[in-house]
Amino acid sequence: MNISLKGTLVLIGAGKMGGAMLEGWLKAGVAPAQVVVLDPNPPAEVKLLLEKHGVRHNPALASITNAEVLLAAVKPQVLDEVLAPLVSLGKSKPLVLSIAAGKTIASFEAHFGRDAAVIRTIPNTPAAVGQGITAMTANRNVSAAQMNLAEQLLGSIGEVVRVEDESLIDAATAVSGSGPAYVFYLTECLSAAAEAVGLPPDVATKLARATVAGSGALMQSSGIDAARLRQNVTSPKGTTYEALQILMAENGMKPLMIAAVKAAARRSKELAS
């Protein structure tokens, strides 16, 4: 991956997600001199990363004269408070890139102006191991070059998809943003089911975790459609077939998952309003 920066990349917030992105950028060859990190108290591992690469940490704002990207990676409840003193960084007309859940494009325009180029995204927690996926949407001021740069920056933590309508970010949040929790709960349920048929708890946990993780890895690496992979495992009238009669029943997993995702999307809209 080649990240083509001309100016300075300002990372606002270097917690778990911001730190993971910083590590990905440096591995991708971004020059440390092109990065500034603004965070009063980053985690110890991020401090070590900053020191190792000589990345500027909390310099005087007046020294940042050529900001090309402002990436906001702070908790949404403190975002407005954090951005208020950083408005001067908007003088260089940077791309404003947000990974703050629930914060709309309009909330950034309120700080940096209606003519600011703003991209709103929703990454997910597997980004911490470089296996995330991020949905992003832009306002009318974002150029094609800025969209490409955003994809490069977000690509450091996994895959990237574009959505044209900002309202669809709520749907993406419900699927991929919240989705890891659904998968983790599936693992819990599979482990409990294993215990219910007599397996010891430690064996049940190992089987469930490895099955879910391995199946995900197979789906990712093979590129085969999920339905086809399911069919490949299912012998006619065999054990898997019997289980799927329960899971794929009219009141089985699909309607339950649809209801869950709709509830998450509805709550995402409420939080962004």
Describe this protein's structure.
By secondary structure, the protein is α/β, with parallel strands linked by helices. It is 49% helix and 14% strand. It contains 11 helices and 8 strands. The protein has an 8-stranded mixed sheet, with helices on both faces. Strand 5, helix 4 and strand 6 form a beta-alpha-beta unit. Helix 6 (168-177) packs across helix 11 and helix 7 packs across helix 8. The longest helix has 22 residues, at 201-222. It is elongated, with a radius of gyration of 22 Å.
Topology:
Layout: E1 8-12, H1 16-27, E2 35-38, H2 44-53, E3 56-57, E4 67-72, H3 79-83, E5 95-98, H4 105-112, E6 117-122, E7 132-138, H5 144-154, E8 158-162, H6 168-177, H7 179-196, H8 201-222, H9 226-233, H10 239-247, H11 253-272
Parallel strand pairs: 1-2, 1-4, 2-3, 4-5, 5-6, 7-8
Antiparallel strand pairs: 6-7
Helix pairs in contact: 6-11, 7-8
Q: What proportion of the residues form beta strands (DSSP E)? A: 5-15%
Individual helix count: 11
Strand order of the largest sheet: 3-2-1-4-5-6-7-8
> How would you classify the helix and strand content by structural class?
alpha/beta
Low-confidence stretches: none
Helical percentage:
40-55%
- Tell me the span between the first and last alpha carbons: 36 Å
Major beta-sheet overview: 8 strands, mixed
What best-fitting shape do the alpha-carbon axes yield? elongated
Computed CA radius of gyration, to the nearest angstrom:
22 Å
Mean of pLDDT:
94
Order of helices and strands: EHEHEEHEHEEHEHHHHHH
**Number of beta strands:** 8
